Amino acid sequence: MKVLMFGWEFPPHILGGLGTASYGLTKGMSLQPDMEITFCIPKPWGDEDQSFLQIIGMNSTPIVWKDVSRDYVTQRVGAYMDPQLYYDLRDHIYADFRYIYTNDLGCIEFSGRYPDNLQEEINNYSIVAGVVARQQSFDIIHSHDWLTYPAGIHAKQVSGRPLVIHVHATDFDRSRGNVNPTVFSIEKNGMDYADHIMCVSELTRQTVIHKYGQDPHKVSTVHNAVSPLPQDILNIAPQKNPKEKVVTFLGRITMQKGPEYFVEAAALVLQRTKNVRFVMAGNGDMLNQMIRLVAERGIADRFHFPGFMKGKEVYEILKSSDVYIMPSVSEPFGISPLEAMQVCVPTIISKQSGCAEILDKCIKIDYWDIHSMADAIYSICTYPAIYEYLRDEGKAEVDGIRWEDVGRKVRKIYDQVLQNYQ
């Protein structure tokens, strides 16, 4: 089974849960002996793990023919791609793209992030996908999130192979219903063209069916999982003050994540006890607003804003926490609670999150119910029996949620799609 997969992020260079999920899923799928995955991303950096898949950098795929030496190509792309692949891709340029700005290799430069000209990068990515789809041999196409749906559609039109799309979030989640019509149009177009749609939760599946008018028979729920922790993460020693408890929120500080409810709950907890510190780790368009709200509530001396964290930093802060909380207003899945439970941190999640469908050994509250949220935080911080139960049972539960099992589910969907596509 050969899969041509389009993504936007891949560890260690990630800006959110999409890259983490892409890595875990592909690693889990690769345990099937006949699975070959080619993963396309806008801009590889050279330190990605390619032991179980092949990465194609869209920024190293030529769309304009240039006469360049092998030594020069090796110097430019050899850190993350076989230079021969550059020449193989160059043989499949399918149109005159000299009107597009390209570099000395005839390639489009990509930021590898989410820049102000994101719409342009999405369009350019889909143009490059046409070259890749003409050169690669594959059985099925798999596109992650709306950013790569146009690329998946183009690859399907070029190759005649079926397209599966993976919905990690919709604009209804990101915008609290105030949907961007351009993004909605791209999402709906991807879903209409897809032969099957995989959603990270039943919550998301229902959104896809009802808000985007999709046939329920072609929409499946495929929950996320977590990867086993490497030894260097397991070896991190928790930095804890026995006289104080630490409650952590970790994620984008945007309206989707419900940061204001976390602050209001923190204020309620601090009316009852002073030996708790609150951490809001991350960046986002509501960061300054949250700093002001903390000041208005008079709790700035018990509140910390360490900024965006990734990789090892995430686990250092989790291991130093006594409670992890994700009060999301609309969370398609939410991998971070699983990561917290992996390192024995009692966890509180909103009922409006996809991971609530598969987690039982945590406390679930409505995102807007700040009194229940405060009670849950206070209980975990105050009563050792509750803390120990959630710590131990939470870890045991999440250790059974494996990407390998998710990979097998995805394979069944592939097989079904290919069977119907003949």
Report on the architecture of this protein:
By secondary structure, the chain is of the alpha/beta class. It has 2 domains: 243 residues, Glycogen Phosphorylase B (Rossmann fold, 3-Layer(aba) Sandwich); 169 residues, Rossmann fold (3-Layer(aba) Sandwich), CATH 3.40.50.2000. The strands form 2 sheets. Strands 3-2-1-4-5-6-7 form a 7-stranded parallel beta sheet, with helices on both faces. The protein has a 6-stranded parallel beta sheet with strand order 10-9-8-11-12-13, with helices on both faces. The protein is globular, with a radius of gyration of 23 Å.
* CATH class categorisation of the largest domain: Alpha Beta
| Poorly predicted segments | none
Morphology call: globular
Q: What is the fold named in CATH at topology level of the largest domain?
A: Rossmann fold
Q: Secondary-structure element sequence?
A: EHEEHHHEHEHHEHEHEHEHEHEHEEHHH
Alpha carbon gyration radius: 23 Å
By CATH, the architecture of the largest domain is named: 3-Layer(aba) Sandwich
> Structural class, please?
alpha/beta
Helical proportion, percent range: 40-55%
Strand residues, percent: 5-15%
Give the count of structural domains.
2
Total number of helices:
16
Taking the alpha carbons of the first and last residues, their distance comes to 15 Å
> Could you report the average pLDDT, rounded to the nearest whole number?
95
CATH homologous group name of the largest domain: Glycogen Phosphorylase B
How many β-strands, per DSSP? 13
Please give the order of strands in the largest beta sheet: 3-2-1-4-5-6-7
Major β-sheet, in short? 7 strands, parallel
Oligomeric assembly: single chain
